[in-house]
Design a protein that fits this description.
single chain, 54% helix, two-stranded antiparallel sheet, 226 residues, 2 domains, Helix Hairpins, three-stranded antiparallel β-sheet, elongated, mainly alpha
């Protein structure tokens, strides 16, 4: 059982980090709305990325139910990134297919999305003064995809049951219980979690059955303690 000190400290860090993250996202939108130097917007967004990366293990160590919170923060970051850069493009202007400079907000949002996803149809292009800004947005999109893929991998890893519990591999008895497959080398207090030993394969003539109450495989001739 975890002591209240480390648990409360981790929860406090998570709450403060989320509040700082939201504050940075607001600053990024304000920077873009008032057309401050794009560098300020980029810095705010980069700090937001750093907080998301910090919060992923923090959330998962507190509770697996907090997994969706990390994904939600990533969605907020992506939305703010697209809108913030679109505001910069709107003010600076984009060269449209007719070679005219467009300051339309919808055109800016469209261009921001295609730049973020590194799609780049080529129908709109930035004016020379903001070409570096578009490169920064494309880089932000690549980082977002990497974080999203990592979150998806973590979710799959946390929801995969061991082979002996699988529907078509139930006769392969390698682990004694479901919890030993959780790859968590650190607990919330920073100590390494020791994994239990592997169960040896059944010998010839032995029959095992899965005991849900005890959470382990038992020989068929073993008497249930209840």
């Amino acid at each position: 059982m975890l002591s209240s000190g480390p648990w409360q400290g981790a929860l406090t860090n998570a709450v403060v980090s989320v509040m700082v993250f939201l504050f940075l996202m607001i600053l990024a939108l304000i920077s873009a709305f008032f057309n401050w130097m794009p560098l300020f917007t980029i810095i705010f967004l980069l700090l937001g990325f750093a907080l998301i990366i910090f919060l992923i293990p923090t959330f998962l160590n507190l509770s697996r139910e907090f997994f969706k919170n990390a994904l939600f923060l990533l969605v907020i970051h992506i939305t703010v990134t697209i809108l913030a850069f679109a505001l910069h493009y709107k003010v600076a202007g984009l060269i449209d297919p007719s070679a005219k400079v467009s300051h339309d907000f919808l055109d800016a949002v469209y261009f921001s999305i295609t730049t973020f996803t590194t799609l780049g149809y080529g129908d709109f292009r930035p004016i020379p003064e903001i070409r570096l800004v578009t490169s920064m947005e494309a880089l932000a999109g690549m980082i977002s995809m990497a974080i999203g893929a990592s979150l998806l991998w973590l979710w799959c890893n946390e929801n995969i049951i061991p082979k002996e519990m699988a529907f078509f591999d139930g006769d392969r008895r390698h682990k004694t219980e479901l919890g030993t497959t959780r790859i968590r080398t650190k607990t919330i207090i920073g100590k390494e979690r020791k994994l239990k030993d592997w169960r040896l394969p059944a010998q010839e003539g032995e029959i095992y059955q899965w005991n849900r109450e005890r959470g382990e495989w038992l020989k068929a001739d073993d008497k249930d303690p209840d």
